[in-house]
Amino acid sequence: MEKRLVFHKPLFEEAAKLAGIYALRSNKTCDSTVLDTFIWKDLYNTQVYVEDKAAIILMKDDKGYFAAMPYCSSEELPKYFGMLRDYFNNVLHSPLRIDLADEDAMTTLGLFDNPEFCIEDEDDLKDYLYDAEQLRTLPGKKFQKKRNLINKFMKEYEGRWQYKTLCCVDEYFLEEFMNQWIENRLAEGVESKETLITEKEGLIELLRNCDKVTYRIGGIFIDEKLEAFTIGSYNKREQMAVISIEKGNSDIPGIYQVINQQFLLNSYEDAKLVNREDDMGIEGLRQAKESYNPVGFARKYRVYEKVA
Q: 17: buried, middle or exposed (CB in 10 Å: 19+, 13-18, 0-12)?
């Protein structure tokens, strides 16, 4: 008898198990760690199916159900891809749709040449990859502007700023920062209220479950007020730090450059590679990410099963 896929909401108690499953095959995308799964689980109505060495992530948006590429070993990928396709076809009565599929999985499954599927390159959602040591040291002319901004910050706020690794006891500072962030972003009309609130609630919930999910949060305090923070996790297989969120008070020159460097120096000193996620097609964000001189990209694809 074939296994029946039964989904449930992600539980923080199974985060460690999921992290191990996510690392079973090569994957340099930000989806190779569980952090984003938990941060955005409510926005995408995320559900999971979990075995000892495999997991399938099911989500839903205004277009309907979609899934992530199955998490398992490369050898087992065809099996779980088939199970997922069968679930869409015979349970959801829908053609299979996978978003943010990584290139290694696409190649393993032969999907680029499979006439049964439509493949779209999600170019705006490709992840930026960086040499970790370069981001820690900012060497040479190409990083001169970054060093200048950091030096200016250090001089202006000498004796007033502090880098701190945040934990559950720092919930007040993070919530206070996010409340101000939401107020500013809504005034600018940049993001939807639903997305901003979901992000804040996801972060607070993560902080409250810091004993169950492996991640790091670093913050820059000025005069004992949190003015920037970033959150990341580590893909041990790829020796890659994945930076899921980075926010700062843009009225403070150099704050982003400082939090970027300090986080890697204090939390991921052994990382060889850094994934700073995508630019979402936003021109200003694209320019900011390109200014750090990426060494490559983790490309992602949307997979649609053709309707006969």
A: middle
Sign, Cα dihedral of 177, 126, 95, 1: negative
How does pLDDT run across 93-145, given as a tens digit for each residue?
999 999 999 999 999 999 999 999 999 999 999 999 999 999 999 999 999 99
pLDDT band at residue 1, thresholds of 50, 70 and 90?
very low
Fold type of domain 128-297: Aminopeptidase (3.40.630)
User: Could you tell me the residue ranges of all domains in the chain?
Assistant: 12-126+300-305, 128-297
* C-alpha 169, offset from chain centre: 24
Q: Which CATH number fits domain 12-126+300-305: 3.10.129.10, 3.40.50.300, 3.40.30.10, 3.40.630.30?
A: 3.40.630.30
Summarize pLDDT for 13-40 with one digit per residue, the tens: 999 999 999 999 999 999 999 999 999 9
